[in-house]
Automatic annotation (TrEMBL):
This is Rubredoxin. Its cofactor is Fe(3+). Belongs to the rubredoxin family. It comes from Aedoeadaptatus acetigenes. It holds the Pfam family Rubredoxin. Residues 1-52 form the Rubredoxin-like domain. Keywords: Electron transport, Iron, Metal-binding, Transport. The keyword NADP does not apply.
């Protein structure tokens, strides 16, 4: 599963970790997050995230 980075603030959504404090359990791919999900750090839209390229 790919990680995604918030363009405005740099927060990285890692599906292996999820964001349990915001109700997103580990194992949920970014594509399955609700359309109205926002960055837990800066509140920007899900559409402002970009896929993190793997090394």
């Amino acid at each position: 599963m790919s990680k995604y980075r918030c363009k405005p603030c740099g927060f990285v959504y890692d599906p292996a970790k999820g964001v349990p404090e915001y109700g997103i359990e580990p194992g949920i791919p970014f594509s399955e997050l609700p359309d109205d999900w926002t960055c837990p750090r800066c509140g920007t839209s899900k559409w402002m995230f970009v896929k993190v390229e793997e090394d």
